[in-house]
């Protein structure tokens, strides 16, 4: 590995003969596999070599934060004969992940209140209910928030009472949640507490003590953007940079096909058939595949990303981070990709994330005359009721109804 990073025999011998050569070499190979550039790897190699040269044998196997600070900053000097402060900061920055990779960095165990109950809940959602990873992640996060509140307020899950649940909504949630959000959290808590009770972790009366708030059909307006705004946000990703080429393909998938962010993040290379012009999507809600024809603009955006700028990594997912480590992007990252571009254009809407583009797709299809059944099929809805909300923005059709002559009927 060292020979690919240095250009002189002297430098190569320095790296090879330095302390912990095997440990440094393995780590640099790992960084290369994660998409590290040659320049970053060279700087990383020099930094960890310097740290290795100044470690003592007693450091081999365990180096904590204070010891690393002592190793590096103990040799900082404002003169040319010592380590410059900026160089010291770089050494610490690169040494920490190297030591973690080796298992030499003591990791404090994450303290999760009532951890067994939470992990049993996660395993049940995954293995028995078969919920999507996105749903599991959200419900685990919300359940953890509740359990942390219980711990912070000296409440024990085993002795929890209905009035404690009320206190959670009144004292913790009143200033944080909307009425609709509170309803979703109440639903999650009922499921969590019912499962916890089945394992003996809490009282069986808790789940039934949580009332659901009243929800009205079609009570909220969809937050679709105008199609002109959709065109504008796609146009912001028009440069030749890797980030723009990737983001353009993502934005088009969200807007043209109305995909959910999780469906975009999990899209694999084998689901795209550029030769046949087909896009295979695994619909998260329907739990079944769906095949779409690739429209030319989307096909070109995907072709350009995959064949021209996508990093050469072993991951099957299509969309990869633009910075090392070169992992597939997470569904949560798509929110930042979309929101950042919408805010830069000054676009105002109730919601500015990926779902706004999904709503925009539905509204455009409705305006183009597709039926609710056709729109629901395109979006992967499980039922027609999920599509009904888009009828509230079809003002053109409402005006046509208003123009009917009722023939004098009163």
Automatic annotation (TrEMBL):
The protein's UniProt keywords, in alphabetical order, are: DNA integration, DNA recombination, DNA-binding
The Core-binding (CB) domain extends over: 112-197
BP-aspect Gene Ontology terms: DNA integration; DNA recombination
| PROSITE patterns in UniProt | CB (PS51900), TYR_RECOMBINASE (PS51898)
Residue runs in coiled coils: none
Database matches in Gene3D superfamilies? 1.10.150.130, Intergrase catalytic core (1.10.443.10)
Q: Which InterPro entries match?
A: CB, DNA_brk_join_enz, Integrase-like_cat_sf, Integrase_catalytic, Integrase_recombinase_N, Tyrosine_recombinase_XerCD
Query: What domain of life?
Result: Bacteria
SUPFAM superfamilies this protein is in?
DNA breaking-rejoining enzymes (SSF56349)
Tell me the ranges covered by the Tyr recombinase domain, including all copies: 220-403
One GO molecular function term of this record is:
DNA binding
* PANTHER family membership: PHAGE INTEGRASE-RELATED, TYROSINE RECOMBINASE XERD
Q: Quote the protein name from its UniProt record.
A: Tyrosine-type recombinase/integrase
The source organism is Candidatus Accumulibacter affinis
The organism's lineage? Bacteria, Pseudomonadati, Pseudomonadota, Betaproteobacteria, Candidatus Accumulibacter
